[in-house]
Amino acid sequence: MAEPSIELKPDIDKPDIVEIDIVQPAEPVIVNTAKHFFTNEKYKVRDDLINWVRSEAAKVGFTVVIEKSDNGSGRRKQFFILGCERGGTYKVGKKRLTKEDTGSRKCQCPFRLRGYFLASQEWSLSVVCGEHNHKMDKKLEGHMIAGRLKPEEKKFVHEMTRNLVPPRNILNTLKDRSTESKSAIKQIYNERQRLKKFIRGTRSEMQQLLKCLEDHKYVYKIRTVGESTTVQDIFWAHPDSVRLFNTFPTVLLMDSTYKTNRYKMPLFEIVGVTSTEMSYNIGFAFIANEKEENFTWVLEMCLTLLKCKDIVPKVVVTDRDTALMSAVVKVFPNSTVLVCQYHISKNVRAKCKKLCSSKEVKPEQLWNIVMGAWEEVMYSPSEESYVDAVVQFRK
């Protein structure tokens, strides 16, 4: 039997060379602003020199902060060191709650200026390092120093906050009153937070909440963990809401919202409907867990708001939360429980989006066909049309 021919290939033992696209690291940003701060002028007052530096920095596109200063007690000479706002690193406090997706403007910028107090009783300035490791900003709006609120602006924010004016409207009014204002919405929120902290004093957040509920005559109930003073669930309702609930108790809508507070506790909301199809808030509750036990307690507290014990809601609308639906059946056994159309449609959209894939029809067209058929099912005017719509939808 003849042996098979062997084909010789050159360089067969050499490894194949694979070209790899190497992403080169971005070149470091270096912006030199030293020329803007070279000056032979001397200043009698220290603050005048600092204000001149800040005005020059604003023209370039950054802000400066006082990093270190000495008043010259003893035999030491007076001096100060100015740095870029983005110098150093951000330090997290021990008691602060950490949040995800947060960042810092600090990037260890090396920019430094030094002010000297001369024997002639004047202040002089020298450039220690005039370079920045970041780009300059086109606008200084929102910067820590440039956007700082003035005393009269802080007073205005306090007055507007006490009058329940939204932060966005407060900021717009400040901009209208002063076109040179560099404040952003963050400065408004921070000042409002300082005001709330000042009003709260030594009270904790829970103690402040209870005080506000008592001051405004709210109806509220608290459940603690065992025999301790730790609050597990809290329910409250406005006096006007209680009166509306006793007048229009037929329909209730219930749902929970999330991420509305720093402790990530679910905020449970109960809404009623009037005879003119207008909605109103009945009550709210912070609950530790979304379990049947917690929902049952909240619904029982809501039931105590009704003066006539023979009158109970006829219809209760919820999302498809099994724990909540079980609690509704337990507290309102004679009520009809319905699932919210919005949540049903939301779930249908989520499921259909994964299944709407076809080579013959574009995904958008298929999506519109499926959702159109589903809306025919949802809004069927009669039982017969509902059956026909379901059959058509299944096709």
UniProtKB/TrEMBL annotation:
Pfam families: AFT (PF08731), MULE (PF10551). One of its GO terms (biological process) is cellular response to iron ion starvation. GO terms for molecular function: DNA-binding transcription factor activity, RNA polymerase II-specific. Residues 251-347 form the MULE transposase domain. Transmembrane segments: none annotated. It comes from the Eukaryota. InterPro entries: AFT, MULE_transposase_dom, Zinc_finger_SWIM. This is Protein FAR1-RELATED SEQUENCE 5-like. It comes from Trifolium medium.
